[in-house]
Write a structure and sequence with these properties.
Blueprint (H helix, E strand, L loop, with lengths): L1 H15 L2 E6 L6 H7 L12 H8 L6 E6 L5 E7 L4 E7 L5 E7 L3 E10 L4 H9 L2 H10 L12 E11 L2 E15 L2 E7 L5 E2 L3 E22 L9 E2 L7 E3 L2 E5 L6 E4 L2 E3 L6 E3 L4 E8 L5 E6 L4 E11 L6 E2 L4 E5 L10 E7 L2 E3 L5 E3 L6 E21 L3 H13 L24
Parallel strand pairs: 12-25
Antiparallel strand pairs: 1-2, 2-3, 3-4, 4-5, 6-7, 7-8, 8-9, 9-10, 11-26, 13-16, 14-15, 16-23, 17-22, 18-19, 18-21, 19-20, 20-22, 20-23, 23-24
Bound molecules: zinc ion.
Length: 427
């Protein structure tokens, strides 16, 4: 008889073992007080760093936490969530001393079923059947436009994923599929990645496509400098060095009186190539008083360029020249204090500051040959079908659970069901 009682006692111990309970932190309770009540040595606090001390101080009254106690009611472990992802763990180590640590919360994610027959109104029936108000919100979004004509006696069944901690709701659920049965007609609503309901296994997405239509192609000379209005002309010499600027009055170093300088002087040695600053026609090449040997080029737009103090000519009157073409060689002819190039630019015979229209260094590749096509862009719309991930898998899963008679998962039923809590749930 004694043996039987002893045997029963052993079985009871091994069956019940530790008990996990959900608790609420008492208002006004200090962490040290909690430790003392549970016979945890305050030595545990010595190991805490500043951040951990702060975390401990942030535990608030009413906060949910979990205790594991042995069958004699002594604390074995305590799990106190401190954020949506972390929790304090107080547990005995191998040498039977309590230790403090902060560890990640071990969420569980599972797929649950809801199977609701409408008795009053769809949303209140779903909320009271599942005790998961976030689930109702997600279903409202997913079923927008799908519930026309739904009435009492109709059925809504759905699959969803839900994160939980030790059987308690955590974060919003994710709806996978919904089956609506009204007057014996079945309809599936598949849920896309954004939580919207679709009546197909595919999600149709419209794209706008810009389609260029290539017309006839022509070869055209394209002005590389057309981007700059002001920088209309090129420099007349390579590596230009300006020695004297345009002015309406300056002291003349040779003639020793003040007179305007209708041009820009570039310091160049004798014999340096002088290039046309732009496309045009040579209208003059000869001797012109103080300017010495001069070349004049007429450009479009009323522009005329004048190159003075030249040593020799290369272009002749009437020549059509391009920007960068060598038209003469620099020198020291006319009234000049040394070899240099004087460049004058005139608009309708009035001098302007050359530097107001010169920008780029002269180069024969100011113009390039480019292929130009008449391009017309047209907008077209195309629809692409994107499969909804796991749609048919969830449909099978929902049907098989419904066939097996699975009942709506009710999240309120867990609240007081200590038997469902397991130490394994926490870490
Ligand atoms: Zn000059």
């Amino acid at each position: 008889m004694t043996r039987i009682i002893l045997l029963l006692f052993l079985i009871a111990t091994s069956i019940f073992g530790n008990v996990v309970t959900k608790q609420k932190w008492k208002h006004g309770q200090k962490f040290t007080n909690y430790l003392q009540i549970n016979n945890v040595s305050l030595d545990l606090l010595k190991s805490l760093d500043e951040l951990e001390k702060q975390v401990v101080g942030d535990i608030r009254g009413g906060q949910v936490f979990y205790e594991v106690k042995d069958d004699s009611g002594k604390l074995v472990k305590s799990y106190i969530p401190i954020s949506s992802t972390l929790q304090i763990k107080i547990a005995k180590n191998r040498t039977n001393e309590f230790r403090f640590s902060i560890i990640p919360i071990n969420f569980k994610e599972d797929i649950y079923i809801g199977n609701i027959t409408i008795k009053n109104s769809i949303w209140s029936d779903i909320t009271s059947g599942t005790h998961n108000s976030n689930l109702t919100k997600k279903l409202q979004k997913a079923l927008e436009g799908f519930l026309a004509g739904i009435s009492k006696g109709d059925n809504i069944a759905f699959l969803y994923s839900q994160k939980s901690l030790a059987g308690f709701l955590s974060e919003s659920p994710e709806i996978h599929i919904v089956k609506i049965t009204k007057s014996n007609k079945e309809m599936f609503v598949y849920i896309d990645e954004e939580g919207n309901g679709r009546n197909e296994l595919f999600e149709s997405v419209s794209y706008v496509i810009d389609k260029p239509i290539i017309g006839k192609q022509t070869t055209k000379k394209v002005d590389m400098r057309s981007d700059a209005k002001v920088e209309k002309f090129a420099y007349p010499v390579r590596n230009p060095r300006i020695t004297s600027h345009f002015s309406y009055g300056r002291y003349h170093p040779v003639l020793h009186y003040v007179r305007p300088h209708f041009g820009t002087d570039f310091g160049v040695k004798r014999g340096n190539p002088v290039m046309a600053i732009g496309d045009g026609v040579v209208i003059s090449a000869g001797y012109d008083g103080g300017y010495g040997k001069v070349v004049k080029v007429q450009h479009s737009g009323g522009y005329m360029s004048l190159y003075a103090h030249l040593d020799g000519f290369r272009a002749n009157v009437g020549d059509r020249v391009g920007s960068g073409d060598v038209i003469a060689y620099s020198g020291n002819t006319g009234t000049s204090s040394g070899p240099h190039l004087h460049l004058g630019i005139y608009v309708n015979n009035s001098p302007i500051d050359p530097m107001s229209v010169i920008g780029k260094e002269s180069s024969p590749v100011d113009f390039i040959l480019d292929r130009v096509a008449d391009v017309v862009s047209t907008k077209t719309y195309e629809t692409k079908k994107i499969p909804i991930v796991n749609a048919s898998k969830y449909r099978e899963m929902l049907n098989s659970r419904l066939n097996s008679g699975a009942q709506t998962y009710d999240w309120s039923s867990d609240d007081d069901t200590k038997a469902k809590l397991s130490e394994d749930d926490f870490e």
